[in-house]
Amino acid sequence: MRLKKRRKAQVSGWRVMRRCVIFFTAICIIPVLLVLMVATDRYLQPVRRHTTFVEQQLHEEGKLSVEPLLNQNMSLIAKRINRRRQHMKKMCKLLGLDRPGNDSLHRPNAWEFLVDNKHHLIWCNIFKAASTSWMYNFNILAGYSPRFLKKSKLVPMTLARQRYPRPSLRDLQKAFDTSISFLIARHPLERLLSAYRDKLQFALPHTHHKKLGNEIILKYRYKKNKKPVGLANQRTPTFSEFVEYLVDSVKKGEQLDMHWAPIVEFCTPCMFNFRVIAHTETLQEDQMYLIKLAKLERIIQPEWKNAGRGATQSQIGKYYSELTRSQIFQLYHIYRYDFELFNYTLHGYLEYGKPDNDPSSLLDAINMKEFLPNDLPKVY
User: Fold this and answer.
1) Are residues 256 and 182 in the same domain?
2) Same domain? 36 vs 159
3) What is the pTM of this model?
4) Which of 52, 128, 238, 376 has a C-alpha 20 to 30 A away from that of 266?
5) Which residues of 254-274 are buried (b: 16+ CB within 10 A; e: fewer)?
6) What is the per-residue pLDDT across 199-237, written as a single tens digit (0 to 9) for each?
7) Does position 303 have pLDDT exceeding 80, yes or no?
């Protein structure tokens, strides 16, 4: 009995000591943890505020501050842009697009360039590739106030051309020697979808593109006297009908609308030595880098305009699932040089295509005749 009582006393003594240790440990550790949590939260707050600020500026105001995110990433952005320049030069040489000639691929085209001699900046205006944003910036550089641009009923391009006349080839080549030149590339099939949605699906009444849309409907919806299935009330061409029209236009050798013409013909990038190749996928960083490089931080800011109908990228599956895989391959061949020069692929597009009813159609599209260096892209 005494042994049992002695053991119980020892056990209860250990329990008391253990509880005391746990109590004093908790008193010491909990305040330290609280201090660490407060300190950590304090250091994270600027990051959170910065992220929120960027998102608000991007989605609500359409502008981004030049300073945040830039100083630390400047060298990385410069390396990325230099890799793009080197890739484009390599592909220009490989495809024979850097040799002067008399066709639209080998004859330098100065028509779409804007040259700002005051600020030593050159831009080739590629429609549906942040063109609205940079047309606004060039109008600011031209001396127009934001208030005037907001109220003006004139088309921004018209205002810009009053201050930046279309340059001659000789003047453009001379300006390249002393200016920072840039263009903005976009995935060819995303750019094509953006053009379709903006100019055809949401075409304004009594415009050129509304008339074109009606012509596409008449030719491709009612061809061969077939009645449309489920499209009787749709007054705009479907994306599939638009692609049929585009493929036929290329087959006939017709000049394509400037909103979906290939960049390789529009800007003839292999004929000029561009300093900056920006991509819409990294536009936020690329244009901050460009503005800082040109020392224009106090005059213009990165812009993100014309996103009123939702991001085109989120609509890719919806629209490209209307097409067959052979149609997507045909589009690839139309924009093949843009794919090659700016390092894009069909990944994220081809998988949405519907299987062709006739397997030979897909085989023909895949095995399209290769273009010769001096040929325009052709669809067979």
Assistant:
1) yes
2) no
3) 0.78
4) 238
5) eeebebbbbbbbbbbbbbbeb
6) 999 999 999 999 999 999 999 998 755 656 566 678 899
7) no
